[in-house]
Design brief:
mainly alpha; two-stranded antiparallel ribbon; about 65% helix
Length: about 775
């Protein structure tokens, strides 16, 4: 058993602590310095309230989130020097400090270091092991502490400690997944000391006891590598008896079985490139020949590891005719578009139903301009290519209006269940709406109702319902209009069209002004920015964890170990999952998980008025950077800071380092040229584009730019939002179109804007704005 002997009576009273590591039959003593790693290296000043010698642990925890990592380390080191703290608090604080130390060790382990740095790292490893050993007495984190000791001891080369800790874990009441992981780590320890016979036995055991797991797959890779090493060293380096009756040919067979299994199940995994290199060596040195299916496995792995030239070679070796589509994909990656098309159409002659033909066709199409892409899909239209709905769709979106509508119609007739059918139906109906007047609009409304019923589960269903209502309203059939508006808002309350329907319904019933597109309504700024916004604590979710005896997870959350808590299988707790992601500065997945759950709960009949959903709404529509948004919106044409929040949410999901395909940067997704122009007007100088990743500067420029657009379009939030995405020139061009009815009907403007990206952008930002208001104002 592995043990660190604690000298309780003299702890923290002398500069050095005596720590005894009992390793099997040998005993050796190490002098472990009192933890002061952060105090020595950093002069970060702590808030006054944290400098007190009477600091309570609860006060430390309450302040922990606002401190940087160095400040956290300093306050924990100082706290642990005190004598008058309970053994449980000492264990808890030790765990927190040890995790900070371990993260620093992990960060620096792969960096080249000089001798003095190496000594410092070794000393830090010793301190970390000591701290985790102290943390063991806190029962919820005993297993976690042992596991971390094994990780740190691995880095410092203390294999005896690694094994003793892992064997101690195997003696605890741990689950099958943990047992699997521990045995795998134990086998890796034996490999690091070349005790291959012991590692071999453990890896075989893992594959037998835990088949179909990632650990079994990794074990197979290692077993294949053992066989490969023995083959390369002519059976001298590794004891032959561990392979029992394996002959030389048996070694090759074992290598192929293990390596090909790995590449088939994990073609881009951690060991894939090494496996490919060894198989290549087998082929050249030992004249190993592969079967067709084996060559295909190897080719696929090369392709997924972005080694396109060898992938091309192996696809051709496998069966050049059968793998024409995969060959075409390789040629595309190698920039040989004409050759890719030639290979594709040759493959289509023999294998028109092959599933790999579609991704190959899409890859080729992406490399072509609009005219050539239309020709490509048109050529496919006259073949036996099985994905003809894809063909019709890709022809339609690239064709002029009249023939495009014919292709949409053909798609609807022949492929009514295609994923493109609902979008094709909408495009046909929109053109009919634009071309119809008077009573002819009644037929369009009826078609919208039919489509809404037919595609009731589609994201476009509320659009059909809304426009049915719009048409009936235009025909003065207010009762019919109200019917379909009501259905849209009741069935799709979070959707843009569900919201629009709600506003139109209110106008019909009460005569209230439809102010949906007035997204800069005056509010009390102080209400949203009195203090910095943080992700609200999910008390109910934590209480549920307690009721289910999820003691380890609860302890990690209590000690602010959010990243580690995320690894504890929190997927079944969406509220908790979103909160932890937010606390670990991952706002994008936090927002997406929370809103997805909101939509699903809405489908089950819950609404935002349900108090159980309040936190999910706030996680879905957070107020991150609220003080900066307030500061730079106040006094501008942006009368409601929630408009800026809606813009930031849709632009970057609050990721300050977001970069788009068009190189828009930061929270507000600013184009460098635009940002520089705005900065000059503010008297600022941007020396480097990387400055735009600074939240304060990015929000300042983004708010200033949006405010200028609001001024330029006479306070119209709709036009300003459109211009923010498409540019002011594109919006002005649309306004100059005599057929545009933006003044009379902003819905028409949104629906008929020439750029699909901008149409979607307008809907997203406006919808988010009203959902923000609903979340924080209840209006």
């Amino acid at each position: 058993m592995y043990l660190l002997l604690r000298a309780v009576c003299c702890r923290y009273l002398i500069p050095l602590l005596s720590v005894v590591f009992l390793c099997n039959s040998c005993v050796y003593e190490k002098r472990v310095p009192t933890p002061n790693y952060y105090e020595q290296q950093y002069s970060s000043s702590l808030p006054m309230e944290l400098q007190s010698n009477s600091l309570r642990f609860e006060q430390l925890l309450a302040a922990f989130d606002i401190l940087n990592s160095q400040q956290r380390g300093v306050v924990l080191e100082q706290f642990l020097k005190r004598k008058q703290i309970s053994s449980e608090e000492r264990a808890q604080a030790s765990y927190m400090l040890a995790r900070l130390y371990e993260q620093d060790i992990e960060t620096g382990k792969d960096k080249p270091i000089d001798k003095s740095k190496k000594i410092l790292t070794k000393s830090l490893c010793d301190q970390t092991i000591f701290l985790f050993n102290q943390a063991e007495i806190y029962s919820p984190l005993k297993i976690k502490s042992l596991w971390h000791i094994s990780e740190v001891a691995t880095i410092s080369g203390e294999e005896k400690i690694v094994r003793q800790v892992l064997n101690e874990m195997l003696g605890q009441n741990i689950g099958s997944d943990e047992t699997n992981a521990v045995q795998y780590a134990l086998a890796q320890s034996y490999m690091r000391t070349d005790e291959i016979d012991k590692a071999f036995d453990l890896l075989k055991k893992i594959r037998t006891t835990f088949p179909h797991t990632d650990y079994a797959l990794g074990a197979g890779y290692y077993l294949g590598t053992f066989a490969y090493t023995q083959l390369e060293q002519n059976n001298k380096a590794i004891k032959k008896q561990i392979y029992e009756n394996m002959l030389l040919s048996g070694l090759v067979k074992a290598i192929l079985a293990y390596y090909l299994e790995y590449l088939q199940l994990s073609p881009s995994g951690r060991f894939a490139e090494d496996t490919l290199a060894k198989l290549k060596s087998l082929e050249s040195k030992h004249k190993v020949s592969f079967k067709e299916n084996e060559l295909a496995i190897i080719a696929n792995a090369y392709f997924l590891n972005e080694q396109y030239t060898p992938a091309l070679i192996y696809w051709k070796k496998a069966n050049i005719d059968k793998h024409r589509f995969e060959i075409a994909q390789c040629l595309i990656k190698l920039g040989q578009v004409a050759a890719a098309q030639q290979s594709f159409f040759k493959g289509l002659e023999k294998y028109p139903h092959d599933k790999s033909s579609l991704p190959a066709a899409l890859s080729i199409s992406k490399q072509l301009n609009n005219t050539d892409a239309f020709k490509f899909w048109s050529r496919l239209h006259n073949t036996k290519f099985v994905y003809q709905d894809e063909v019709l769709w890709n022809m339609a979106i690239r064709a002029p209006l009249a023939p495009g509508l014919n292709f949409y119609q053909e798609l609807l007739v022949h492929y009514p269940n295609s994923k493109y059918a609902v979008d094709a139906q909408w495009r046909i109906l929109w053109q009919k709406y634009k071309a119809s007047k008077g009573k002819a609009l009644q037929a369009v409304a009826n078609s919208c109702i039919f489509a809404a019923n037919k595609y009731s589960n589609s994201q476009l269903a509320p659009r059909f319902l809304f426009w049915a209502g719009k048409i009936f309203e235009a025909l003065s059939s207010k009762q019919q209009a109200a019917k379909y508006y009501a259905k849209a808002t009741a069935t799709f309350p979070h959707n843009y069209y569900g919201q629009r329907a709600k506003f139109r319904l209110l106008t019909i019933k009460s005569g209230a002004k439809d102010n949906y597109f007035e997204m800069s309504l005056p509010v009390s700024f102080e209400r949203l920015s009195a203090k910095g916004w943080t992700w609200p604590y999910p008390a109910a979710a934590i209480a549920e964890l307690n009721s289910k005896n999820e003691n380890t997870l609860v302890a990690l959350i209590y000690l602010k170990q959010y990243e580690e808590a995320l690894t504890q299988g929190v997927g079944s707790y969406p509220e908790l999952n979103a909160w932890l992601l937010g606390k670990t500065e991952q706002p994008m997945p936090a927002i997406n998980i929370a809103f997805k759950n909101l939509e699903e709960s809405g489908a089950k009949g819950n609404t935002m008025t349900n108090p159980d959903n309040v936190l999910l709404w706030q996680y879905s529509f957070p107020l991150l950077y609220n003080q900066q948004v307030d500061k730079y919106s106040r006094g501008t044409s942006i009368r409601d800071p929630l408009l800026m929040h809606a813009l930031i949410r849709e632009e970057s999901r609050y990721n300050p380092y977001a970069v788009s395909k068009s190189n828009a940067l930061g929270l507000c997704q600013l184009m460098p040229q635009t940002a520089n122009a705005v900065a000059i007007g503010l008297g600022l100088h941007i020396a480097s584009n990387t400055q735009l990743f600074q939240p304060d500067l990015n929000i300042k420029i983004g708010a200033t730019y949006l405010s200028s657009l609001l001024n330029g379009f006479h306070g119209s939030s709709l036009l300003a939002i459109a211009a923010y995405n498409a540019g002011a020139g594109a919006v002005k061009a649309k306004l100059s179109d005599k057929k545009n009815f933006v003044v009379k009907d902003p819905d028409y403007f949104v629906e008929d804007f020439p750029y699909r990206e901008t149409r979607d952008y307008i809907r997203k930002v406006i919808s988010s704005y009203w959902l923000y208001r609903q979340t924080y104002y209840g209006s």
